[in-house]
Amino acid sequence: MRDFQVLGARAPRLDAPAKSTGQAKYADDLTMSGMLHGALLQSPIAHGKILNIDTSKARKLKGVRAVVTAREAGLVKYGVSPARYDETLYCHEKVRYVGDEIAAVAAVDLETALEAVELIKVDYEELPAVFDMFEAMKEGAPQLHAEFPGNVTAEVHQEFGETGALMAQCDLVVDHTFLSKRQDAAFIEPHSCLAVFDLQGKLTLHTSTQVPHYVMRTVAMVLRIPVGDVRVIKPCVGGGFGPKSEATPLEMSACLLSKVTGRPVRMNYTREQVFLHSRARHQFYAEMSLGVKKDGTMLALRNKAVLDGGAYTSFGIATVYYSGSLLGGPYRLQAMKYDGWRAYTNKPACGAQRGHGGVAHRACFEQLLDKTADELGIDPVEMRLKNVMVAGQATINELNMSSLGMKECIEAVRDGSDWKNKKGKLPKGKGIGSACGFFVSGAGYPIYRSDTYHSTVVIKVAEDGGTVTVLTGSAEIGQGSDTMLAMIAAETLGIPLECVRVLSGDTEYSVDLGAYSSRQTLMTGHAAKEAAESVRRQIAEVLSVHMGCDAAHITFRNGNVLFRGGPGDFEKLRQGYIKEHRGWTDPPGGDYLTFREAARLAFLEKGTLVGTGKYKPPRLGGAYKGAAVGTSPAYGCSAQVVEVSVDLETGQVSVDNMTDAHDCGLAINLTSVEGQMQGSLSMGLGECLFEEVKFDSRGRIINASLGEYKIPTALDMPNVKSIVVESNEPNGPYGAKEVGEGAIMPTIPAILNAIYDATGVRINELPVTAERLYMAMKEKEKKP
Amino acid sequence: MLLPRFEYHEPTTLEDALNLLHELGGNARVLAGGTDLLVKMKRKLEKPSHVISVARVPGMDQIIPRNGHAVTIGAGVTAAELARNELVMDRFTPLAIAAGKLGAPPIRNRASIGGNLANARPAADFPPPCMVLNATLKLKSAKGERDIPVNDFFRGPGETVIEPNELLVSLHIETPPPWSGGSYIKLGARKAMEISMVNVAAMITLQSADGPIVDVRIALGAVAPTPVRALAAEDLLVGAIPSEELFRKAGEIGVGMCSPITDHRGTMEYRCMMIEVLTKRCLTEALARAKAWKP
Fold first, then answer.
1. In this complex, is the C-beta atom of B267 within 8 Å of any C-beta atom belonging to chain A?
2. Where would you tag: which of A57, A373, A458, B20 has the fewest CB atoms within 10 A of its CB?
3. Residue A61: its H or E element
């Protein structure tokens, strides 16, 4: 039975006071004496040869301290996956999209830097460009990278089981296609950084990132300096959602300019530059066939994907693998075939965004499931329940569901939404829809192939024993990871949450791969637990000698020490502590020896008390090519029921109710779990109904602002009924696993299924604007 | 993004403001809420060498009732103020509704009615309600003043009859007669922070609660280079007993008065169909309010 003092509560966030009073420091709040301001020159054309770059006028401008191009930066290739390093810091022979970086300037103020950028003269020979993923893969299309002919950055061909043979045995095979649109993550804080080289030649980079560790490695590699000479510090971050999971040209430019000038250099992206840098959600095309038995049993799935990757690879190899692997569950399949291609186009590069690679294909599949249920005359919720996997099962592509509250989630949203009284019984214009999904709880492997620990944590106890500091390289980006770690440390040490301080987001503190793939609760949480256990053990060992009690019989609870479950005779130890702190006004009291007294005693014997913890997953997944993508020590899953109203005269959709259930193993901080669930829903709702990055015919973004790129407002988002399902994950710390990304999976298909229920129209292209739905309804009217 | 360099003026009397405008004319821009001007300046679409704020000019931010017969609204009155003002809600309803749909609360706290009109965007929220309320705009300069009916005010996208030395100081609106009611509908993608794909304002005056229509005005936005009055649709309605069928026909005729474009917000085809639907709906809402009119 669970008996937690700290976990499972609604803890106030550690960062809430600073953020709500405006005292929190973000990268753009940082300033240093002698600081210079940097600015980037980015390509105004989508595809072209660079014939000449003339920086002489810019260099002569008063106040300019440095101008750097590929000549100064060198041509070290980098990217996300070492298998596809296809970027250089600055373009040298070619520009590949509007926004491709060509040069950077450092000057005494931003105005001068921007003026200098305009003085750099670049001669281009414009090349034909390609903006459509299907066009890009055709013969004769303009080629982006000589090394990757055919504009294919990655392709995947996998088959598990005998798809063809099983399809032939099916009573029914249903097809569906789906087209999503390029998204922007629309985090509130645009990228911002401040780089400074000290007089020893060591670099410190303060930057708004999700992954200090990877940024450190990429910066070191591109600037050709030792990794140990680079320290990356993440101040408060105003959201990331994926696109801040890799080193940016902004960060590397600031570092290079600081190296060249010997001065601190600050650089920011404008909102428009955030759109240009992108690395957000790809555009996906999906084509699927599902084969079933008459009774609704799923047998086989054929899945085809085409992804618009933009000009560079970024996370794209993993993305195109995920679009296949993440359909292995949460339903039992006997066969699955997947073919995926990711195309280069002359647009900003796409990368990882919440629900990486899985969201669009999940949307297609869950619609296909509803379509199939419809044809079989089975209730779609019942069909899901019939096929759902349970804990202990593995998917056909060898993903191991060590815990899986999928069935419980479906039942929770079915009952929580009153599905049985609504499905099929709502008036025209009102609809109800459901969907499910699952996601990794931390990628099974680091981005670069390595045996590295994914997370290490250091816990240090203050000399008086009263305060415990968790030191970690993990990244609090607004999701609540600092509070989660403090809660795990407090629970493990048996002390109140208020006694724990967290210092995070600094590569100097520990190794941590960062905030992506929903990994920190499970992985950093494990390392924090282990570090706290080490501290606890060290204290218990010292106490066992003094108290003549076996260390195994010493426990810590609510800041007190229990010997064989009771207070024990600790008076001598207390007198010793009070003597040491003569004159202090907070002598320990109460019927039990306190953690503070115990930790002080341990300090007096052993010196500064430090515990370390580490985590890396065991070897996971199958032996086939690409088996690593999709593996995870655990999987979170979720189900949703959405109710919509459709204005039949205009096509406008209002989402009236959302009922959401998520299995997060153990909810460490219930409030944060619900926050992640509701945030996921809002992001999914936006992608479903409004969001699309649009381009003109020359590859320029026409809605690169939060005025014109439409994310949901508070008025568009209904109240959400959030149901937390707890499954006790054996591979998670205290049974915990992810909630950050899995929760977005069902949102889009649940809305689409509800729209179908309301209108009888199946929309297979996003976003479902009023116009798209209205026109589809009109089209349907015309058909008899 | 940085603002370009400019000289900033903050006159404290109307006279000073008009003198500055007279002196600086075309080199100056008037700053009210700044929700349009500062955005355009940051995007380098406007680079005025002088900016004249009217924030400290007395009276610009006032709503003055004229003995029940009319109201004078200062050009600097914010959308937020118009949305919550009881007199405006009660007697000049389309204006209050439009004010409540402009942008979002932080924008409504800054954006002024004068700025919204003078900015003259085809999709702006305030022009259609001002048009159906027959507002008159007062333009002043150091040399004198003139009153312009709002229906003669707009010349094209971003263009009005205001001369470089003139300042829009206020709007004057006669209180609609008994048994009048109005409404405003805006169609955008989201429920807030939207630029209309189509917007419609309507004002109906009945002879009595169940009587025929004696006067009606319909104005459409975002469907032509300037907001337009659907005069032919109005002609159809005057003298008629209101009905759903009649309003549907009015919508159909309304479409003919428009020349919407296709852009990334929506196609011409869809906009036309929505003019029809929204005109019908707006008239229906206006009628309900007219029937419920109280002295």
1. yes
2. A57
3. none
Decide if B193 and A775 are in contact by the 8 Å CB cutoff. no
Residues of chain A in contact with residue B264, where contact means CB-CB under 8 angstroms, are: 694, 702-703
If one counts the domains in chain B, the total is 2
> What residues pair up with A556 in beta bridges, in sequence order?
A561
Domain boundary among B107, B142, B175: B175
Same domain, B147 and B24: yes
Say if the Cβ atoms of A114 and B2 lie within 8 Å. Answer: yes
Same-domain status, B24 and B126: yes
Question: Looking at this predicted complex, what is its ipTM?
Answer: 0.95
Q: Is the dihedral of CA B154, B155, B160, B165 positive or negative?
A: negative
A711, A771, A775, A779: best mutation site toward chain B, by most B Cβ within 10 Å? A771
Give the burial string for B238-272 (b: 16+ CB within 10 Å, else e): eeeebeeebbbbbbebbbebbebeeeebbbeebbb
Give the residue carrying structure tokens 């419809």.
A374
| Span A257-271, average pLDDT | 98
Distance CA B200, CA A250 (A): 45
Domain that holds residue B57: 1-175
Give the span between the Cα atoms of A296 and A276, in whole angstroms.
45
| pLDDT at res. B188 | 94
Query: A710, A690 in Cβ contact below 8 A?
Result: yes
For residue A582, give every residue at least 6 positions away whose Cβ sits within 8 Å of its Cβ, in sequence order, or none.
none
Distance from CA of B270 to the nearest CA of A (A): 6
Same domain, B210 and B273: yes
Residues B55 and B160 in one domain: yes
Residue among B191, B264, B277 whose CB faces A716 most closely: B191
CA of A716 to nearest chain B CA: how many angstroms apart? 6
| Chain centroid, CA A62 distance in Å | 43
In tens, the pLDDT along A70-92 reads: 999 999 999 999 989 999 999 99
Question: Touching check for B104 and chain A: CB below 8 Å?
Answer: yes
Q: How confident is the model at residue B148 (pLDDT cuts 50, 70, 90)?
A: very high
If you average pLDDT over every residue of chain A, what do you get?
97
For residue B9, which phi and psi values (nearest 5 degrees)?
-125, 140
> Residues B1, B70: one domain?
yes
Taking the C-alpha atoms of residue A774 and residue A647, their distance in angstroms, rounded to an integer, is 9
Mean pLDDT of the region A294-301: 98
Residue that the structure tokens 């600092």 belong to = A482
Domain endpoint, select from B120, B141, B175:
B175
d(CA A748, CA A31) in angstroms, rounded, equals: 42
Dump pLDDT digits (tens) for A486-515. Answer: 999 999 999 999 999 999 999 999 999 999
Tell whether B27 and B85 lie within a shared domain.
yes
Cα of A700 vs its chain's centroid, Å: 27
Q: What is the three-class DSSP state of A654?
A: strand
Domains and CATH numbers, chain A: 27-127+188-239+244-277 (3.90.1170.50), 355-443+632-782 (3.30.365.10), 453-615 (3.30.365.10)
- Domain of B231, CATH number, reads 3.30.390.50
Residue A369 DSSP label: H
Please tell me whether residues B113 and B205 are part of one structural domain: no
- Answer whether B284 touches A (CB < 8 Å): no
Pairing state between β A298-308 and A335-343: parallel
Q: Are residues B69 and B122 in the same domain?
A: yes
Q: Contact B52/B21 with Cβ under 8 angstroms?
A: yes
Residue A581: the pLDDT is 86
Widest Cα–Cα separation across chain A: 93
Q: Do B189 and A769 touch (CB under 8 A)?
A: yes
Grouping H, G, I as helix, E, B as strand and the rest as coil, residue B58 is coil
Query: How far apart, in Å, are the Cα atoms of B100 and each of A715, B124, B191, B286?
Result: 13, 13, 11, 17
Q: Is the pTM of this model over 0.95?
A: yes
